[in-house]
Q: What sequence folds into this?
């Protein structure tokens, strides 16, 4: 599975919880199509949403793009949605792969509300919860899959600019929320609907399910990680 890389977004309608999703193109843009003012505007908007609502969400490869010259076409690979700001609420950040953006936003909003009500998300392949029209659980996202990749690119862009959030209050900094098929079977269960399995690869099982950086980007990430540890 091959992913292109993103530098832009457009605003979408507010979610039930008010955190207003950001929609990002999966297209790798030419430098002439971007500028620092636009990038700063993106980060300012993310900061405003987190300050107002506690977190925000980013949906990648679901169509739409604000960068001049970008058609916003959907590209090869699944749509995925992730949170920015959950760790500041002492909750793991959430990644959802393959779910329609509207469902992903509903599930993330519900998770945020449950957290503040003292209700924990199901965790692990033996746990589950049915709500907002879906049966789901969460599984860990290995550090290498989100620290050394573009899986959560705007998360890195944002926190690199303001300082990294503490993660020692949670056992797992990032989890993947996985939905079951109509019979309640998850992708790792025998007999799970083939379409459900294909559209949401499990990140900790499948290296093709997450976008890896090239060598130059990886070196830049390592430099940033060293600065984080200082």
A:
């Amino acid at each position: 599975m091959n992913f292109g890389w993103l530098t832009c977004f457009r605003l979408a309608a507010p979610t039930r919880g008010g955190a207003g999703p950001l929609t990002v193109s999966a297209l790798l843009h030419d430098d002439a199509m971007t500028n620092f003012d636009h990038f700063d505007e993106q980060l300012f908007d993310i900061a405003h949403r987190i300050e107002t609502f506690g977190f925000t969400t980013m949906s990648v490869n679901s169509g739409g793009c604000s960068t001049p010259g970008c058609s916003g076409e959907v590209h090869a690979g699944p749509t995925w949605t992730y949170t920015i700001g959950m760790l500041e609420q002492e909750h793991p950040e959430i990644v959802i792969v393959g779910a329609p953006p509207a469902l992903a936003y509903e599930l993330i909003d519900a998770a945020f509300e449950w957290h503040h009500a003292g209700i924990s998300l199901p965790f692990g392949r033996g746990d589950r919860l049915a709500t907002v029209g879906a049966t789901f659980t969460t599984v860990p996202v290995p550090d290498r899959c989100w620290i050394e990749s573009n899986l959560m690119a705007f998360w890195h862009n944002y926190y690199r600019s303001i300082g990294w959030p503490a993660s020692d209050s949670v056992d797992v900094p990032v989890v993947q929320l996985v939905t079951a098929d109509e019979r309640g079977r998850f992708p790792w269960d025998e007999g799970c609907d083939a379409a459900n399995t294909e559209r949401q690869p499990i990140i900790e099982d499948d290296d093709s399910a997450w976008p890896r950086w090239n060598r130059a980007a990886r070196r830049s990430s390592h430099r940033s990680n060293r600065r984080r540890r200082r």
Notes: The beta strands are 9-11, 22-24, 56-60, 80-84, 93-97, 129-131, 134-140, 174-179. The longest helix spans residues 36-53.
